[in-house]
Every structure is written in C-alpha cells, then in structure tokens.
C-alpha cells in the first residue's frame, strides 16, 4: 500500500500535475485584468505584451523565432491543425502523408484524412526504420511527414535529426511532435523541422494550452475559418493567463531538467530491472538507454490491463494501461502492436518530477502480489 494511504500518481504520460510556478503565474495573470490582446486599451496592451513574452520564451526553448510561435489548444487539435494545414498548403505537390507507425492517434487520423497515408514501421524497441523512412519521403507526391521526438508510451527516442535531414533532402516539410521531449531534453536544436507541436500539460502547465511553431517560409495554410487573432493561424481569443502559466511551467521545468532527469532515469532503471525479476512472465518494452527519463511500459501475460490498473489504484498507485491516446484503458495500444509487443496486460508508468525512491520501492513491493492475485482469479496463477 502507498505510504500513509495517499495515492501515488504515476501517470504523467497523460499529463504532469500542474507545477507551483504555473499555478502562481496563472493567479497573478488572472487577477491583473488582462483583456483582449487586439484592443488598444490598457488591459488589451497588457495582454498583447504578455503574449509577446510567452512567444519569446517558448521560441527560446525550441530554437525558433517568436513570430513563428502560435499559442493553440490541447495536443490533439494542435497536431491535427499542423498536419491539415501543411496538407492544404502543399496540395499542389501531392497528397501523400508519411508517418511512423507509433505517432499519436491524432496525427495518424489527420494523416489518413489528408490523402494517401504511408506508415513506416518501427523495430522491437519502438525505433523508426530510418532506411524505409528515407525511401518513403523521397517518393513523388509527398506533401509532408510527421515524426515524434520520443514515443509517448514507451519513451524510445527517435532518430529525429536524421529523419529531418532526409525530409530536407527530399524537399518535404516535417511536422515534429516534441510533446514528450519538451522540458525533459534539450530541444533547442532538433534538426530541420518545419512545424513543431507541443502541449503544456506534459510539462506541468495548463492542459488547455498547446503550441504550434511554424517556420517562416513553410507553406502552412489554416485548415479552418480564420480571424484576426495570431495572423489567422489559430482562431479565437487566447486565454492569456493560461498561456502565461504554460510559459512559466516550461521555464521552471526546463530549469531543473538535468537534476530531475538524473533522478527519474535512476528510478526507471530500478523499475526496469526489478519488475522483470519480481514478476514472472513479464515483458518490459522500449529502449532501455535511448529514451526519455520518466516513462516505462511493461506487459504481463495472463493479466487484463484494466483489471491490473484498477487493482493498483485500490492499492494506492495511479497508473495507465492500453493506448496513451485513448480515453479507455481497454483500447489496445497501436504503439505496442507496431513493436510486436503484447498489447494486453500492459502498464504504463510516467514518473512525475516529485516521484521518490520510497514511492517506487512501495510500488515494486505491491506489484507482484497484485499480479499474482489477478492471475489466480483467472486460473492462470
């Protein structure tokens, strides 16, 4: 049982708890009366100045210009807009969209809707087949390609710089999903991408805020009716306090990146080793070395993932199962399927910035008994 009866949150892959810096920033911004950034009154000017600062701070973290940063909404509509906007801007070139097999489901859906969808496979660790990728993006009629920096379920780093270079050589713009990497890796030089997307909820900011960074010269066209806000790149009035809080969260998380990453990597290494030792018939997936520091996924034979998640919740540990892109834990993971891994009976752990060694050891103590109990109920023990 979790120490003191309090639940241990181990599901940061679905969103990091809001950082104190972000909450404080939101409270200050919300109480200052910032208004519509297009208005000329003082409240409007304050809002415009705040958004300029947000864009400058986000741009500094991704190696871009402030005027390339668009403040958007949650990840799914942001990623879909990035893909659909490039597809619209490049439709004279062709309608083919190239992605890896392990992209976020919103990206895969947008790619399929954009025209011919070419899916490039991954290996057993979840890493892109770079040779097949290079061949795919070099085909005639490719409008764009999409790739994540690191996988949101198993944590494996992709060869994003080499993949981006293959796109540049082929004259194909790349949508780069940096959501899992922002604040956890150095993202100031991620290669020759054309559009970059990210989500504040992943690094302790408001879940309502995302970012789409569109390089100058990229033929991106708004795939929805546009208005006067943000040069017509994202419709509607921006939630300035939430955007301000998102920038504060990114600054704070990136500021402690090295210290947090070292601790999380050590704890995940401990989990990778001990889960495989303490639980029979378990498969720990993802690259053990080339990965983001905070994620771990494993699959247990003869166990239902939903049942395992619920029993661990009763024991005081909040974990995830199934696809990270699905609201239902029963939805099989397309990421694990693409890797050739077991798609049922899986558990995904996402350590937060405050996860402790004591909490990890408590989880390791509880897990074997929970798995054994479920297997016994199913007659597989």
Topology:
Layout lengths: L7 E2 L10 H12 L10 H21 L6 E4 L2 H15 L6 E5 L4 H10 L2 E4 L9 H8 L4 E7 L11 H11 L3 E4 L17 E5 L10 E5 L25 H16 L1 H22 L3 E4 L9 E6 L4 H10 L2 E2 L15 H6 L6 E5 L6 H21 L4
Parallel strand pairs: 1-11, 3-4, 3-5, 5-6, 6-7
Antiparallel strand pairs: 2-8, 7-8, 9-10, 10-12
Helix pairs in contact: 1-7, 2-7, 3-4, 5-6, 8-11, 9-11
InterPro entries: Aminotrans_V_dom (IPR000192), Cysteine_dSase (IPR016454), PyrdxlP-dep_Trfase (IPR015424), PyrdxlP-dep_Trfase_major (IPR015421), PyrdxlP-dep_Trfase_small (IPR015422)
GO molecular function, one term: cysteine desulfurase activity
Cofactor: pyridoxal 5'-phosphate
Report on the architecture of this protein:
The chain has 381 residues and is of the alpha/beta class. The protein has 2 domains: 8-16 and 256-378, Aspartate Aminotransferase, domain 1; 20-252, 3-Layer(aba) Sandwich (Aspartate Aminotransferase, domain 2), CATH 3.40.640. It has 11 helices and 12 strands. The chain has helices at residues 20-31, 42-62, 75-89, 105-114, 130-137, 160-170, 240-255, 257-278, 305-314, 334-339, 357-377, and strands at 8-9, 69-72, 96-100, 117-120, 142-148, 174-177, 195-199, 210-214, 282-285, 295-300, 317-318, 346-350. The longest helix is centred in the C-terminal third of the chain and has 22 residues, at 257-278. It is globular.
């Amino acid at each position: 049982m979790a120490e003191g009866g309090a639940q241990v949150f181990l599901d940061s892959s679905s969103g990091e708890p809001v950082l104190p810096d972000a909450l404080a920033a939101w409270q200050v911004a919300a109480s200052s009366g910032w208004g519509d950034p297009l208005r000329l009154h003082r409240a409007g000017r304050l809002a415009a100045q705040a958004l300029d600062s947000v864009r400058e701070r986000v741009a500094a973290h991704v190696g871009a210009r402030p005027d390339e940063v668009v403040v958007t909404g949650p990840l799914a509509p942001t990623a879909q807009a990035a893909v659909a906007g490039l597809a619209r801007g490049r439709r004279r070139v062709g309608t083919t969209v190239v992605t890896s097999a392990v992209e976020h489901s919103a990206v895969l859906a947008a790619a399929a809707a954009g025209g011919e969808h070419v899916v490039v496979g991954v290996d057993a660790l979840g890493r892109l087949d770079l040779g097949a990728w290079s061949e795919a993006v070099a085909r005639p009629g490719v409008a764009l390609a999409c790739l994540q920096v690191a996988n949101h379920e198993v944590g494996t780093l992709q060869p994003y710089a080499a993949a981006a270079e293959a796109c540049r050589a082929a004259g194909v713009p790349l949508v780069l999903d940096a959501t899992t990497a922002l604040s956890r890796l150095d993202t100031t030089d991620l290669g020759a991408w054309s559009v970059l997307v990210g989500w504040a909820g992943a690094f302790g900011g408001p879940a309502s805020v995302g970012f789409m960074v569109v390089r100058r010269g990229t033929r991106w066209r708004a795939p929805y009716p546009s208005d006067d806000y943000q040069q017509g790149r994202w419709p509607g009035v921006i939630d300035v306090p939430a955007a301000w809080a998102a920038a504060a969260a990114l600054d704070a998380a990136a500021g402690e990146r090295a210290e947090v990453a070292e601790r999380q990597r050590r704890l995940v290494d401990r989990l990778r080793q001990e889960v495989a030792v303490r639980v029979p018939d378990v498969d720990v997936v993802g690259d053990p070395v080339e990965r983001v520091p905070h994620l771990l996924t494993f699959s247990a034979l003869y166990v239902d993932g939903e049942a395992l998640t619920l029993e661990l919740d009763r024991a005081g540990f909040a974990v995830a199962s199934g696809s990270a892109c699905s609201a239902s834990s029963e939805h099989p993971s397309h990421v694990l399927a693409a890797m050739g891994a077991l798609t049922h009976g899986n558990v995904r752990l996402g350590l937060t910035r405050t996860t402790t060694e004591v909490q990890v050891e408590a989880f390791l103590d509880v897990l074997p008994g929970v798995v054994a109990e479920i297997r016994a109920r199913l007659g597989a023990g």
